[in-house]
Write a structure and sequence with these properties.
Helices cover 55% and strands 17% of the residues. The chain has eleven helices and eight strands. The protein has an eight-stranded parallel barrel with strand order 1-2-3-4-5-6-7-8, surrounded by seven helices. It binds SN-glycerol-3-phosphate.
């Protein structure tokens, strides 16, 4: 499974990169706003800064909701760096734009996926990635992981090359469960990734090893 980090925070991206396990970055307009990034030039410069830290795909989302606007914004974003993937919402205009981007050699991430049908249409239009939002479905007492399972079955049935990017991953168990199901990629906060390492027996075992070593030495 590939590990992406879902943030626009450069320090967190550097920390994840330093771990040696980072395959890419996803952002969205809310995450950019959280970092105080606004204005076309600042946004573009920030995407380039992210691309310079991580050697992997970086999703950059369009703000336009109409087809023409998505195309013109997406072209600008894709020109910023070879690793930029244009993130487009799962709407009618978005699916049409994904088809255009696909036909013109621009890679896409279809975002805000909450149903198998949305994922199917995005794959049909040639999306590089689909982003089903696991956590946000869980938030409304729906089953986010069940959606990942359904999409996995559908994509395997038809050999779609579109990769399943499990998004809105909130905690470490989401990552384990996505890996069991066979999601191609997870994206989430660094805390969820680092949380995979937590185990009390590792902590107590290490403490015991160090105590025994000190005793033998002393
Ligand atoms: O990648 C999508 C993600 O940013 C949404 O996550 O936690 O805001 O639902 P969350």
């Amino acid at each position: 499974m590939k590990f992406f980090i879902d943030t626009a925070n450069l320090d967190q991206i550097r920390d994840a990169q330093a771990l040696g396990i980072l395959d890419g970055v996803t952002t969205n307009p809310s995450l950019m706003a959280k970092e105080g990034i606004s204005g076309d030039e600042a946004v573009k410069a920030h995407y380039v800064a992210i691309c310079e830290i991580v050697d992997g795909d970086v999703s950059a989302e369009v703000i336009a909701t109409d087809y023409e606007g998505m195309i013109s914004e997406g072209r600008v974003l894709a020109d910023l760096h070879a690793n930029i993937v244009v993130k487009v919402p799962a709407t009618l205009a978005g699916i049409r734009a994904i088809r255009w981007f696909t036909d013109n050699g621009i890679r896409t991430n279809c975002t805000l996926i909450f149903s198998a049908g949305q994922a199917l249409l995005a794959a049909k239009a040639g999306a590089t990635y689909v982003s089903p939002f696991v956590g946000r479905l869980d938030d409304i007492s729906s089953d986010g992981l069940q959606l990942i399972e359904k999409i996995r079955v559908i994509f395997d049935n038809y050999d779609y090359g579109t990769e399943i990017l499990a998004a809105s991953v909130r905690h470490s168990m989401h990552i384990i469960e996505c890996a069991e199901i066979g999601a191609d990629i997870m994206t989430g906060p660094l805390s969820a990734i680092v949380g995979l390492l937590k185990h009390p027996l590792t902590d107590s075992g290490l403490a015991q090893f160090l105590a025994d070593h000190a005793k033998a030495k002393g």
